[in-house]
Amino acid sequence: MQDPLDRTLRAEVTRRKERYRRCLEESVLPFWLRHSVDRENGGYFCCLERDGTVFDTDKFMWLQGRGVWMLSKLYTSYRTEPAWRDYARAGVEFMKAHGRNPDGDWYFALDRTGRPLVEAYNIFSDCFAAAGMAEYSRAAGDEEARQIAVSTYRRIQERKTNPKGRFTKQIAANRPIKAMAFPMIQVWLAREMGDLVEPGVREAYLREAIDQVTKLHIDRGRKAVYERVYADGGHPDCMEGRLLTPGHALEVLWFILRAVESWPVDAHDSRYADRGAIIDLGTEAMLWTAEKGWDTAFGGLFYYLDADGRPPEKLEWDMKLWWVHAEALCAFLLAYKLTGRAVFWEWFRRIDDYVWARFDDPADGEWFGYLHRAGDPSTTQKGGKWKGCFHIPRALLTCIRFFEEIEAAHDGGRA
Amino acid sequence: MQDPLDRTLRAEVTRRKERYRRCLEESVLPFWLRHSVDRENGGYFCCLERDGTVFDTDKFMWLQGRGVWMLSKLYTSYRTEPAWRDYARAGVEFMKAHGRNPDGDWYFALDRTGRPLVEAYNIFSDCFAAAGMAEYSRAAGDEEARQIAVSTYRRIQERKTNPKGRFTKQIAANRPIKAMAFPMIQVWLAREMGDLVEPGVREAYLREAIDQVTKLHIDRGRKAVYERVYADGGHPDCMEGRLLTPGHALEVLWFILRAVESWPVDAHDSRYADRGAIIDLGTEAMLWTAEKGWDTAFGGLFYYLDADGRPPEKLEWDMKLWWVHAEALCAFLLAYKLTGRAVFWEWFRRIDDYVWARFDDPADGEWFGYLHRAGDPSTTQKGGKWKGCFHIPRALLTCIRFFEEIEAAHDGGRA
C-alpha cells in the first residue's frame, strides 16, 4: 500500500523520529514532571511560566484529566517508567477526592486544595476525566479508576444531547446547529475507553460521531470542514456558521483516520468500502484545510478563519497556537503513512520545520504556546488554563508511532 | 480653578475640537446611518465590514440599546436632527417588539427578524436598554419607552446581586470576588436615568457604586485599579485577581469624576470633602493606569495586563482596541479640565495623536476596531458583536463638551 521509501527518505524519517523522541524524553516530560505536580495537595499546577514557575495555582479539570491520561498512556504504551505512573497517580488521587459534584459530573475548576470554583458546566471535563481514569486503570490496575471511567462515560452519553444543561444560553429552537467539538472527542474517547465498554456500544457511538463529521461537517462542494452546521449539513450565514478552525479540523480528521485504519481490509466486512472512502475523503479534507489555513505571509496555521473570507469573530484569529500545529503534525504524518502521497510528506515537513523554529524552547524545555501571527511569542508561558501536559507529548508519542509504522512498512516492503 | 490657558493652547483646543466635530458629523454618524439600519425588520445590523457591507445579520442587544441611546443623546444634547431620532426609533420599535423575555429581561441576541438566539443571561443588555429607552423617551416624548426604562432599571437593581441567575458558573462561596464592570455601568446609568428615578434612590445607587470602585478596586498602595477584588479590597493571587484592564479603569474613572464634578462646591454640603478627595484620587489613578498601560515599544494602550507582570490570561492582551482609546480620550481631557495639570493634557495629546494615526479611517468612515500590537488592523471590520454605534461617537460628543467647557473656563477667566 505504501510507495516504497527511497533510502534518503528512510533516513530522514529515522532522523526526524529521533528528534521527537529526544524532545519528548529530554525536554517536554522533564518540564512537566519537575514543575507541575503539587506535592502538598496532589493534582497538577497548569499555569507555568517559561521556566516552570507557577503563576496561578487553580486546578483546571480538563488539564488534570489530560495529564493523568498522558502519563498513563506513556506508561502503558511507551515505557513502564515508575515516575510516569506516580505522576498520573498524583492527578488521579486529587480527582477522586475533589473532582466531582454530587451528581458525579466533573467540575471545571478547583482551587489548589480542591474546593470547587467553577461548576460542572463543561462536558469536556468529563471526557478527559474518563480517558484519564481509563488509561490509569490499565497502568496501575486500579479498579476504582476503572469504575469511575465507566460511570463517567455513561454520564457523558446521557448528557450529550444537552451537555450544558441549565447553563445553556443558546436558544437551539431558533437556530438548531450541530457543533464538531463533541463528535471529535467522541471518536477519540471511544478508542480510549477500549475494552472498558461493550464493543457494540462503543462502535455505535464511534460510528455516529464519524458519520456526523463526514456527512455534515465536511463539505465536499465548498472544500472545507465547518465547525458548526445545520442538521442537514447546511450553513447558517452568520459568523458561527462560517467558522473554520484548522486545528480542530486536522485533529478530528486524524482521529477518524486512525479509527477506520483499524477496520478490516476485507471485502466481506461491512465497513470495507467505507474504510477506503473515509480515508480518501479525510485525507482530501486535510489538504483543503492546510491550503486555506496556512499563512503564506508568515508561515504557520491560523487559529480561526471565516469560510467566506469575512472578518473572523475571534480577536486571536491569526495567532499561531501550539495545539493546532501539534495536531497538524499527527494529521499529515498519518495521511502520508496511509497514502504514500508526497504532498502529505511535504505538508508534514513544512509544519515540522515551523514547529522547531518557532514553538520549541530548548533553553527551558517544552514549547511556547501562543505566538503572534509573525511567529514571535505573545507570552512566554508554557502552561495555562488550556495548555498542560497533553497536546505536545501526545503529538510526539503519536508521531513516533507513525514514524515506526512507516519504517516497518518500508523495511517490510524491502524484505 | 483652571490654570489659565495661554493663547497657543487655547487655539489648539479649538483646532482639536473642530476635528472631533468633523469626525462625528462627517465620518462616524454617516457610516452608521447609511449602513446599520435594517429597513425591512427594524433594529440595527452591527457586523459591518470596512465599507459598511453587512457580514452577519444577527442583532446583539447590547448594541441595539447603545445605538438607541447614542442617537437619542445626540438629538437631545447636540442638535435636533430628525434623521437621528428616526435612527433611534428604528432600534426602539424593534426592541419593544422582540427584545424581552417573558420576565421582562433582555435577550442577549436575536436574529434579524427578532427571534431570540441567546438567553437573557447578561445584565448589561438590560443596562444599555434602560439607558437607550430613557434617552429616547426624552428625544421623542415616548411614554412607553419611559416606562420600559423605569421597569428595566428596577429589574437591574433586583438582579444585581445575582445577575446571571441560573447561568452562574462561578462558585462564589469559595472565592467571593467583586467585579468592577457592574459598578462602572451603575455610575453611568444613574446619571442617564436622571429624572426618571427618584433622586434619593438614584443617588444611593450612584454612591454605592462609587464607593465600591474608590474603596475596593482602586488600590493606593499598589497604584493600580483592579478588575476583581475581595470584599475587603484584598487580591486573590490568581489570574483573575491580578487582572488589569486599562480601558475599563479609565472609563470608570471618568464616569465617576463626571458624576462628582456636579456635586456642590459648598463646604456645607456633606459631599464637599468627598468631591475633592475623589477628584484627586481618580485623576491620580488615571496616571497610574496610563503609565502601566501604555505600550512604550509601539504606542497605544494594552487591552489587558497582569498587575504583577505575570503572563496575561487573555490571548488578545496586547492588542489595541478602539473603545479603550475612546475612553482614554474622555478620561484625560476631563482630568485636564478638572485639574489644569499639564501631565493630563500631554496624555490626552499622546492618545489623540495615536488615535488619528491608527484607528481613524477617512477613506470609508468610522474607526477600525482591532489593531495588532504594532498598530496595524487585525481585521478591517467597523462593527461586530461588541462594536457598534457607541464608544466612538460617545467619546467624540463627550470630548466636544469637555473642549467647550475648557474654552468657556478660559474665556471666562480672561473676561
Structure commentary:
Chain A is mainly alpha-helical. Chain A has 12 helices and 14 strands. Chain A has helices at residues 7-35, 61-77, 82-98, 123-140, 143-159, 181-193, 199-217, 246-261, 272-293, 322-339, 342-358, 391-414, and strands at 47-48, 54-56, 59-60, 109-110, 116-118, 177-179, 218-219, 224-225, 228-230, 243-244, 305-306, 320-321, 370-371, 377-379. In chain A, the strands form 6 sheets. In chain A, strands 3-4-5 form a 3-stranded antiparallel β-sheet. A 3-stranded antiparallel β-sheet of chain A has the order 12-13-14. In chain A, strands 1-2 form a two-stranded antiparallel sheet. In chain A, a hairpin with a 4-residue loop joins strand 7 (218-219) and strand 8 (224-225). The radius of gyration of chain A is 21 Å and the shape is globular. Chain A starts with 6 loop residues before the first helix and ends with a helix. The model of chain A has no long low-confidence stretch (mean pLDDT 96). Chain A binds chain B through residues 47, 49, 55-58, 108, 111, 115-119, 121, 166-171, 174-175, 237-239, 310-313, 315-319, 370, 372-373, 378-381, 384-385, and chain B through 47, 49, 55-58, 108, 111, 115-119, 121, 166-171, 174-175, 237-239, 310-313, 315-319, 370, 372-373, 378-381, 384-385.
Record the SSE blueprint.
The structure is a homodimer of 415-residue chains.
Chain A: H1 7-35, E1 47-48, E2 54-56, E3 59-60, H2 61-77, H3 82-98, E4 109-110, E5 116-118, H4 123-140, H5 143-159, E6 177-179, H6 181-193, H7 199-217, E7 218-219, E8 224-225, E9 228-230, E10 243-244, H8 246-261, H9 272-293, E11 305-306, E12 320-321, H10 322-339, H11 342-358, E13 370-371, E14 377-379, H12 391-414
Antiparallel strand pairs in A: 1-2, 3-4, 4-5, 6-9, 7-8, 10-11, 12-13, 13-14
